[in-house]
Amino acid sequence: MRIGEAATAAGVSIQTLRYYERRRLLSPPRRRESGYREYAPDTVEQVRFVKHAQTLGFKLTEIEELLALRNHASSCGEVRGVAAAKIADIDERIRQLSNIRDTLRKLVTACVRSDSSARCAIIEALDEGAHNIGN
After folding, report:
1. What is the pLDDT of residues 69-88, one digit of tens each?
2. Which contiguous run of DSSP H or E holds residue 62?
3. Which of 36, 86, 91, 105 has the most Cβ atoms closer than 10 angstroms to its Cβ?
4. Cα–Cα distance between 39 and 23 in angstroms, integer?
């Protein structure tokens, strides 16, 4: 199938398909004599695999690893290891986001309590943080 057909069937744009091809997430398509790309029927399945993995939080570099494991009939244990590492990564991001949320809540509360003539507590905290970045 041609690139437009493959992209439509997979639910992505032509640019996405080309990007995945450049990233080697897809098998290289063969070329017709006219120069047009000829995508194999399993291209749609590969793109859907990539998109689903992205919805689960995997980055493209991690998806490359999953595709390699998928294409080489690797053991479930290897795939489980990749998934367990992703869970640990997600847990860490949740912890970081929770800390950010808690800090912002404190700043918003401080901003509400401050005198209207005083400098905004949120701006002060951001200024203070900006000065501490280089230290």
Report:
1. 887 766 788 889 999 999 99
2. helix 60-71
3. 86
4. 16
